[in-house]
Amino acid sequence: MSVNKTMTDVAYDFLSRHKKQIEFLKLWDEVIKQFSIPEDKKRRKKSQFYSELLLDTRFASFENNRWDLRNRHRFDETHVDTQDIAFDDDDDELDVIGLDLPKGDDAFDN
């Protein structure tokens, strides 16, 4: 393996060869094989690898922690429509009953 290859490059090559969605753990196993990651560093590297997959635009995540190359899928398969996300815009007052909050001159300013 080339010294300059990244973990995401290994995942890209692996997905390119398999031509289908792959579970994250199978991608991770391939990275471990290619890089010979020591046991004491696997946990940290696994987290780093997952983060890098999320940030790399070549990849798309799907249900059940499966990954594939984004260019194999339509836009609507790889993007979430944020118009359907409900936000809690209520500026409800906090329930302060039972809290020992300062009053009068010692009260917190809002």
Summarize the structure.
The chain contains 4 helices and 3 strands. With 110 residues, the chain is mostly helical.
How are the SSEs ordered, and which strands pair?
Layout (H helix, E strand, L loop, with lengths): L6 H12 L3 E2 H12 L6 H14 L3 E4 L3 E4 L5 H4 L32
Antiparallel strand pairs: 1-3, 2-3
Keywords: DNA-directed RNA polymerase, Nucleotidyltransferase, Transcription, Transferase
GO biological process, one term: DNA-templated transcription
GO molecular function, one term: nucleotidyltransferase activity
Features:
single chain; 110 residues; mainly alpha; Arc Repressor Mutant, subunit A; 3-stranded antiparallel sheet; nucleotidyltransferase
Can you describe what's shown?
With 110 residues, the protein is mainly alpha-helical. The protein has a domain at 7-76: Arc Repressor Mutant, subunit A. It is built from four helices and three strands; from the N terminus they run H-E-H-H-E-E-H. Strands 1-3-2 form a three-stranded antiparallel beta sheet. Helix 1 crosses helix 2 (24-35). The longest helix is centred in the middle third of the chain and has 14 residues, at 42-55. It starts with 6 loop residues before the first helix and ends in a 32-residue tail after the last helix.
